[in-house]
Design a protein that fits this description.
By secondary structure, the chain is of the alpha+beta class. About 50% of the residues lie in helices and about 20% in strands. The protein contains twelve helices and nine strands. The strands form two sheets. The protein has a five-stranded antiparallel β-sheet with strand order 1-8-3-6-9. A hairpin with a 5-residue loop joins strand 4 and strand 5. The protein is globular and about 65 Å long.
Length: about 290
């Protein structure tokens, strides 16, 4: 069962290498809409800090080669010894849809993971380090793609170790559950199907009552609400790509454009047309800020 492809095919993540080498002293990373970070500490010791939503300063010490994954905007600082520094390769991550990207909503603000805990990383990282260290034709493009491979391997690990990573509720927790993952993957792959509760439960190999209860506990919402939110996320993605509402309605299993617009307005507080206009304005403003 492939639990990730349907997500990543519909909601892309693009990596962009921006640093390879030592970092000394204090290095600050801003929080920008739709942007995350994936840092790989190759060698050295460091301290990283950020503030929680309540303003409390969090300090974490790292003393071995480690992946530092920030899936959503979080202002953070690296503190490295000025004498020798620590060796990094760093990439920014652009999540399609920004904060609406399903993985951004499903993951914790920070994942700190020693490299030795993720099987199979050695080959990918060896290629990544080789491309980051040498100036050759296409090295930046290839390094970006290799960072995306490392991210996928990290996501695989998180699916198999959700509780260890501090993920107990939400999409990643659901995809980590043997039974619920069957249903979630089917919903992701077939959003236009006329799903009934009994169909979802049968997909999971459970009774309707047991399935509904477990889904609500693990995902934090009912199966019907999850399906509606998934369809609305897809509708937003289609709108960003300029697809007409009538075509989107057909793709997502709604009888017509009016039916889709009604659900869209109920769940997102605006019509598809109004949402698209506001989204384009926001994207234009964000693009100017990033440039």
């Amino acid at each position: 069962m492939d639990r990730l492809s349907a997500l990543l095919e519909r909601f892309r993540v693009r990596a962009h290498l921006f640093h390879a080498g030592r970092l000394c002293g204090l290095t600050h990373f801003d929080a920008k809409p739709g942007r995350g970070f994936l840092h790989v500490l190759r060698r050295g010791d460091m301290e990283l800090t950020h503030r929680r939503d309540d303003g409390v300063l969090v300090r974490i010490e790292v003393h071995e080669p480690t992946l530092l994954f920030y899936p959503r905007p979080l202002e953070h600082d690296f503190h490295n010894a000025p004498a020798d520094g620590s060796d990094f390769v760093c990439a920014s991550l652009d999540f399609e849809g920004g904060g609406t990207h399903p993985l951004v909503r499903a993951l914790p603000a920070l994942v700190v993971l020693p490299l030795q805990q993720v099987p199979g990383l050695d080959a990918s990282l060896s290629l990544l380090f080789a491309e980051a260290d040498q100036m050759r034709c296409g090295h930046r493009f290839l390094a970006d793609r290799l960072f995306e491979v490392v991210l996928l391997q990290l996501l695989r690990w998180l699916l198999d170790h959700a509780k260890e990573a501090g993920v107990s509720v939400g999409l990643m927790a659901g995809l980590s559950d043997t039974h619920l993952a069957l249903t979630l993957t089917a919903l992701h792959e077939q959003p236009r199907k006329a799903w009934r509760l009994q169909d979802m439960a049968a997909q999971a190999g459970m009774s309707r009552s047991a399935f509904a209860a477990k889904f609500k506990v693990v995902l934090g919402q009912t199966p019907a609400d999850y399906l509606a939110d998934w369809r609305m996320s897809l509708a937003q993605a289609h709108l960003r790509h300029g697809h007409p509402v009538k075509l989107i309605a057909s793709e997502l299993g709604y009888a017509n454009a009016s039916a889709l617009s009604r659900v869209f307005a109920q769940r997102l507080g605006a019509s598809p047309t109004a949402w698209k206009k506001e989204s384009l304005q926001t994207s234009s403003k964000t693009g100017k800020e990033l440039s």
